[in-house]
């Protein structure tokens, strides 16, 4: 289910995090091709702590840091170039920093990390507003309803 490359990266994480994105759906049992891994790092790390945690997680892998000043409030992300790539986000779509703590405690512990409830992941995908995210939500909805 997970490549050894991503498994090695996940094994380096010491900060609290939540799984998001299509990999989280796959851990929930929904089929996707080769999903990337999205992680929401604990916002209590602060800006510099977040960047330090990303560097530690990446290990020998290349990192691309990105700022998203147009987001409200502004957020940042980093892409770790492993196979498949891993995106580390300071805040997923549709959530605030204050959402992390309560979501952390209602999330299920999986072998890959804490997994938010399915409805939380679907809400985030819908809030992102991108066509590919709508397609993912529709695909999961069809699987839940067991239709075509």
UniProtKB/TrEMBL annotation:
<protein>
    <recommendedName>
        <fullName>LicD family protein</fullName>
    </recommendedName>
</protein>
């Amino acid at each position: 289910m997970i490549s050894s490359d991503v498994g090695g990266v996940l094994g380096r994480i010491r900060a609290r995090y939540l799984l998001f994105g299509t990999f989280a759906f796959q851990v929930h049992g929904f089929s996707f091709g080769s999903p990337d891994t999205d992680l929401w790092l604990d916002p209590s790390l602060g800006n510099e702590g977040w960047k330090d945690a990303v560097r530690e997680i990446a290990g020998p892998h290349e990192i691309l840091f990105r700022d998203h000043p147009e987001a409200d409030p502004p957020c940042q992300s980093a892409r770790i170039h492993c196979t498949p790539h891993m995106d580390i986000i300071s805040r997923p779509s549709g959530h605030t920093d204050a959402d992390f703590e309560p979501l952390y405690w209602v999330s299920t512990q999986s072998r890959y990390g804490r997994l938010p409830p399915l409805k939380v992941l679907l809400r985030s995908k819908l809030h992102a507003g991108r066509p590919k995210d709508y397609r993912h939500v529709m695909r999961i909805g069809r699987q839940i309803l067991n239709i075509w």
